[in-house]
Amino acid sequence: MAQKFYVTTPIYYVNDVPHIGHAYTTVAADTLARWRRLHGDDVVFLTGTDEHGLKVQQAAEKNGVSPQEWADKTSLRFAETWKMLDITNTDFIRTTEPRHRVAVQEFLQRVYDNGFIELDSYEGLYCVPCEAYYVEDDLNNGNCPDHGIPVERVKEENYFFRLSRFEQRLLDYYAEHPEAVAPESRRNEVLGFIKQGLRDFSMSRTSITWGIPLPWDENHVTYVWFDALFNYCTAVGFSADPERFAEVWPADYHLIGKDILRFHAVFWPAMLMAAGLEPPKHVFAHGFLMVGGERMSKTRLNQIAPADLVETFGSDGFRYHFLVDQHFGPDGDFSFEQMLTRYNADLANNFGNLASRVLNMAVSYCDSATPSSRENGPLAAASVHALERLETAMESLNFSSGFTAVWDFIGATNAYIEDRQPWALSKAGDAEATAAVIGDCLEALRIIAILSSPVLPRASSELWSRLGLPGSPTEARLPTDVVWGSASTVGNSLVKGAALFPRLDVPS
Ligand code: ME8
């Protein structure tokens, strides 16, 4: 039976519309999902929207609609954006769905029965955009350290989650599972935070109504983070399908931004432990995409909508930029000029040109049919090397370095053509040598189509059909199908086609 692989993105707040920051995480998760499918895994890939809490309630009020109407409208914008970017999520969860309410209530009851939720009163400094409490020491001149706006003093009688009781268990867990939080700088941040001592946190609210009521006290609704994090369990059958839940949980990867690391690597595993459930296997927190050196935000009006870039670069061009030009881990600055330059260099010139020149030559010199490639031809070793580098890089989610290895292989194939000059061989009447070089290049293209398919689903599939190959590169399996000469391609009918990535003009 195929191995299960469960990957998630954060569920995005519906107070905001999708921007390239959200797309950054989601495209990475999609590429990982596609990558695991190439290995034959049965991939469960979840994304969705976070629809409860004060932020959403306030956004709805401001727009004069009910929170549900607001959530319906904005959630759809996220779903449409993911469709535009060829995201292959297998489920899309909304926290206002009945399945989620049922699962969260069952989970809460379990944690309450286990004695980890208790009534207490609390006075604290609350930041609405963070949906979190702070203490004086956390603040910058009285302002939220993350949003730079004043916090509100809030006093509530609330239910508390006894996070403090999990300090040692979390430290033990992370000592036994050093791979559970990555990159390493984030793991150190998490350990440092736990070692400072963990405070219990308020997990219910009476001041708002937009949330899931506590099953044992309906005057309280569940704190938005307590509700939101559980989406990862709801979607794989926590309440509805225990057999499936046992099979799919724990998640293999939660991909998140560094802003929500503590929630995922401290609160969440403790909440799971409190219910007798296993923590996720890996939490990977990437950095922020900045625009002009600043974090994107509604107030700064510097958010970029994915659709605006897709219009120019196409969905593959968008995916390539955020995965390969940007490093997944540290912060990165978005620049349109850089995106354009790399698009022209890597996609139009390197990838696109290779495909069109090889197909053009094959059509002209080989009667539009694939000649045989040489067993262990000159490019075979380079293809093995590309796969090795990609496999190693993907183990640490280093998309940039992994796919650069594939582009190096593309570069090597282009260099091979320059070196052998098949047009000269053909002119000299050496049909055998011409066919050998073209056969090698077509085999390289077949392998390139498979290896680039997680990042460029459209172009790789188009290339695949121009190569006269049946099905789609997504059906290939690694490593067998990228072994040099592993597919019977001789005599396949080849098609030239238009440029896969038309060159874009650089504005003067
Ligand atoms: O935090 N650069 O939702 P959210 C890179 N609902 N990634 C960015 C980014 C940027 N500039 N801006 C946003 C929430 N992101 C909660 C999550 S999960 C149980 C609940 C991405 O809409 C990044 O993944 O504020 C970040 O963690 C997430 O969007 C925050 O999305």
- Annotation field: number of helices: 17
Number of DSSP strand runs = 16
**Beta-strand content:** 15-25%
Structural class: alpha/beta
Q: What kind of sheet is the major sheet?
A: 6 strands, parallel
Query: Which ligands, by name, code or SMILES, are bound?
Result: ligand ME8
CATH topology of the domain at 336-482: Isoleucyl-tRNA Synthetase, Domain 1
Main CATH class of the domain at 336-482:
Mainly Alpha
On the 0 to 100 scale, the average pLDDT is: 95
Q: Give the helix proportion (percent range).
A: 40-55%
Q: What is the topology, as strand order, of the major beta sheet?
A: 3-2-1-12-13-7
Q: From the alpha-carbon coordinates, what is the Rg to the nearest angstrom?
A: 26 Å
Corresponding CATH superfamily of the domain at 336-482: Isoleucyl-tRNA Synthetase, Domain 1
Low-confidence stretches: none
Q: Which second-level CATH architecture of the domain at 336-482 applies? A: Orthogonal Bundle
Tell me the span between the first and last alpha carbons.
Answer: 56 Å
Described by the principal axes of the CA atoms, the overall outline is elongated
Report on this structure:
The protein is α/β, with parallel strands linked by helices and 508 residues long. The protein has a domain at 336-482: Isoleucyl-tRNA Synthetase, Domain 1 (Orthogonal Bundle). It has 17 helices and 16 strands. The protein has helices spanning 20-38, 54-62, 67-84, 98-113, 167-176, 184-195, 224-229, 231-234, 242-248, 261-274, 306-325, 336-365, 380-395, 399-420, 422-427, 431-452, 457-466, and strands at 4-13, 42-50, 91-94, 117-127, 132-134, 152-161, 181-182, 201-202, 204-205, 213-214, 217-222, 253-257, 283-286, 289-291, 294-295, 332-334. A six-stranded parallel sheet has the order 3-2-1-12-13-7, with helices on both faces. It has a four-stranded antiparallel sheet with strand order 5-4-6-8. A three-stranded antiparallel sheet has the order 9-11-10. α12 (336-365) packs across α14 (399-420), α13 (380-395) runs antiparallel to α14 (399-420) and α16 (431-452) packs antiparallel against α17. The longest helix has 30 residues, at 336-365. The relative contact order is 0.11. The structure holds ligand ME8.
